[in-house]
Amino acid sequence: MSKFIVIGERISVTAPSINRAFAEKDPEPILARAKQQLEAGAYYLDVNIGPAESNGEELMQWAVKLLQGEFDNVPLALDTANMKAIEAGIAVYNRAKGKPIVNSADASGRIEYVDLAAANDAIVIALCNGDGIAKDNDERMAYCQTLLERGMEHGMEPTDLWFDPLFLVTKGMQDKQMDILECIKMISDMGLNSTGGLSNNSNGMPKHIRPIMDSAMVAMAMMQGLTSAIVNPNDLRLMETIKSCDVIKNNTLYADSYLEL
Amino acid sequence: MPFNRKPQKFNASIREVEIGVGEKAIKIGGENVFPFYTFDGDLGNTPKVGVEISDLGLDNPVPGISAYYEGCTTAAEMAKKAAEMEGADFLALSLEGGDPNGANKSVDELIAVVKEVAEAVDLPLVVEGSKNVEKDSELLPKVAEALQGKNVLILSAKEENYKAIGAAAGLAYNQKVGAESAVDINLAKQLNVVTTQLGVKPESIVMNVGTATAGYGYEYVVSTMDRIKAAALSQSDATLQMPIITPVSAETWGVKESISEEADAPEWGSREERAIAMEIETAAADLMAGSNAVILRHPQSVATIAKMIKELA
């Protein structure tokens, strides 16, 4: 098996400094966060430019060129509700280090993102979700099937759809956590890849608790076959857990310095 | 259903390392397929064969080796003869005479031999230490210094002395560093990691992951090399993408099958034939498991392995 793929989530308009940097086309804050994440072990970087309705195409191209130019064609996940912006970003994207990721499709209103990924030989994050959150795993897997068929109809490799079971907040939906983990197992048993915004599980918890919950969640999810996650790679405890799980799963060969790699 | 041939493709490859200078320089590594999987893709540089001589001259040699080096009185003369051997790509000079538990030659004495040999031949040179950790920490940096500009491979930096040897060979004098572990995959990886952390470029490192003689716990050697190549290629593990060199003869000429004279073991037949067989079998298996270069002694072994490589690659 190959190594768990960490997608760094910190270049996002939800962070005020990054929002401002995108608005003003100021490279510094974006490059600084990219560097921190890559040094901490991120492989892909998520680039969330927000809805970007007016200038999305130009903004995404600027961001892709900026990041890939500075960091040796770092692979990116292009994250926006503006489909044209994703397509524009892919047009200037260098694939040397990995295909671009389209973030994201679902089985309902956003199913065309699968078509977009297929047309551009990209990976797509496919949320096992329709209108509203799936009520159980039957529903999740039905969405998964819909998305998979859509991708294959358009000529995609099944492994280029990375299924997101949609991690749910523990505070309030504690009884659903094992469902999510079982869903990951079902996806894994089909030989498919998976990913997701894993830290959603610890949303609303105190700051010092979140790395602990996220680490526990990633270890259990990796046991179930999760192949990737969209996380904060600067969470040291989480990254140490991921690297240790990669060793235990034999995804990477152990060496005494494995945490430094 | 018709057979549909599907080549095994990797996105990673083994690094290419160059040893020596000028026309005779060799490159090892560069492949992005498993050993000799020519049906899958590019083999990179074909594996290379080295001839080993020692600062101590010939020790208890078999007739074929004595005859080959007949008339040679110095290491330099032996080096010249070795360089002409059919199938030889490089020369390996062992400084075993430096071992404090043996001849315990001084560093200065050994450096004189090293210089003499380096001047006598234009084949790429691999210099093997005394195998004593303390002595090598002193000796091998001096070897790296004395051979500046020759782009030699220094064997070896171990866990206990990689800092001294790695820094001198890989950083100060721009030679190639051999990172030695003894059939231990985790240590092989760790040594590459810490040597790189010293500042030695990955393309200046060659691994010696150790070997056993065929029949002497050899399965571990195969699984070690297999696992290293699998991690390097299928898991794209950059810390294991260094080519592998295996000093075969140092192992095989020490086992009883290679030492016992025919008079002592008549049922085993000719000592020379046995010793050659042990050397060839081990080298062939090392190459099949992933070695990018092997070091041998007997002219017949060198010629046979060189021919095998030529026909398979």
Show the helix and strand layout.
The complex is a heterodimer of chains A (261) and B (313).
Chain A: E1 5-12, H1 16-24, H2 27-39, E2 44-48, H3 56-70, E3 76-79, H4 83-91, E4 101-105, H5 112-119, E5 123-127, H6 137-153, E6 161-164, H7 177-189, E7 193-194, H8 210-224, E8 228-231, H9 236-248
Parallel strand pairs in A: 1-2, 1-8, 2-3, 3-4, 4-5, 5-6, 6-7
Helix pairs in contact in A: 1-2, 3-4, 6-7, 8-9
Chain B: E1 17-19, E2 26-28, E3 48-54, H1 63-68, H2 75-83, E4 90-94, H3 107-120, E5 125-128, H4 133-146, E6 153-157, H5 162-172, E7 176-180, H6 185-198, E8 205-208, H7 218-234, E9 245-247, H8 249-252, H9 256-259, H10 271-289, E10 293-296, H11 299-312
Helix pairs in contact in B: 2-3, 3-4, 4-5, 5-6, 10-11
The greatest inter-chain interface is formed by: A-B, 11 and 17 residues
The biggest beta sheet of chain B is recorded as: 8 strands, parallel
The H/E string of chain B reads EEEHHEHEHEHEHEHEHHHEH
- The assigned structural class of chain A equals alpha/beta
Brief synopsis:
Chain A is an alpha/beta fold. Chain A has helices at 16-24, 27-39, 56-70, 83-91, 112-119, 137-153, 177-189, 210-224, 236-248; strands at 5-12, 44-48, 76-79, 101-105, 123-127, 161-164, 193-194, 228-231.
What does it look like?
The complex is a heterodimer of chains A (261) and B (313). Chain A is an alpha/beta fold. Helices cover 43% and strands 14% of the residues of chain A. Chain A is built from 9 helices and 8 strands. In chain A, strands 7-6-5-4-3-2-1-8 form an 8-stranded parallel sheet, covered by helices on one side. In chain A, β2, α3 and β3 (76-79) form a beta-alpha-beta unit. In chain A, α1 crosses α2, α6 runs parallel beside α7 and α8 (210-224) runs parallel beside α9 (236-248). The longest helix of chain A has 17 residues, at 137-153. Chain A is globular and about 40 Å long. The model of chain A has no long low-confidence stretch (mean pLDDT 96). Chain B has one domain (22-312): Dihydropteroate synthase-like (TIM Barrel), CATH 3.20.20. Helix content of chain B is 40%, strand content 14%. Chain B is built from 11 helices and 10 strands. The longest helix of chain B has 19 residues, at 271-289. Chain B is globular and about 65 Å long. The chains are: A alpha/beta (261), B alpha/beta (313). The A-B interface holds A 2-3, 251-257, 260-261 and B 185-187, 189-190, 193-194, 197, 227-228, 231, 234-237, 239-240.
